[in-house]
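2024-03-11 09:14:02 INFO worker-7 job=invfold-0412 stage=load source=structure_tokens
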């Protein structure tokens, strides 16, 4: 489980990129969840964001001591950060993998088999 201190540390990543004609910005989007992968480095992990229009994206990050040898800040950012747009279904699938206990809290109650379409929250629960 992640502590409140660790959650606050996540907000230090300010990232804005234009991808396929749309801007993705961590300062205007909400961080829904994150996954720390410290086996790959002390700051390695992924953050799931949603913007005010309901579009999702992942910010992957993996800072390490090699960043000091890159020439510019932009080179460092591009080497250690990657932003990937997601569909709502892909965002739910990401949450299933990395924070399964929070899926329904984040997206609404998911149907039981036979109750409704997979990855489609039950009406009125989102």
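2024-03-11 09:14:09 INFO worker-7 stage=emit residues=126
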């Amino acid at each position: 489980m992640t502590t409140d201190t660790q959650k606050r540390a996540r907000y230090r990543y300010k990232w804005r990129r234009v991808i396929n004609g749309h801007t993705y910005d961590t300062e205007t989007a909400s961080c829904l969840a994150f996954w720390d992968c410290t086996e790959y480095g002390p700051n390695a992990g992924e953050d799931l964001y949603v913007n005010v229009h309901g579009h999702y994206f992942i910010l992957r990050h993996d800072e390490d001591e090699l960043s000091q040898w890159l020439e510019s800040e932009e080179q460092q950012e591009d080497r250690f950060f990657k932003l990937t747009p997601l569909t709502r279904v892909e965002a739910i699938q990401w949450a299933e993998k990395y924070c399964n206990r929070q899926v329904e809290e984040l997206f609404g109650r998911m149907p039981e088999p036979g109750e409704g379409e997979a990855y489609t929250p039950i009406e009125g629960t989102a």
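2024-03-11 09:14:09 INFO worker-7 stage=report msg="Residues 44 and 62 are 4 Å apart (CA to CA)."
2024-03-11 09:14:10 INFO worker-7 job finished
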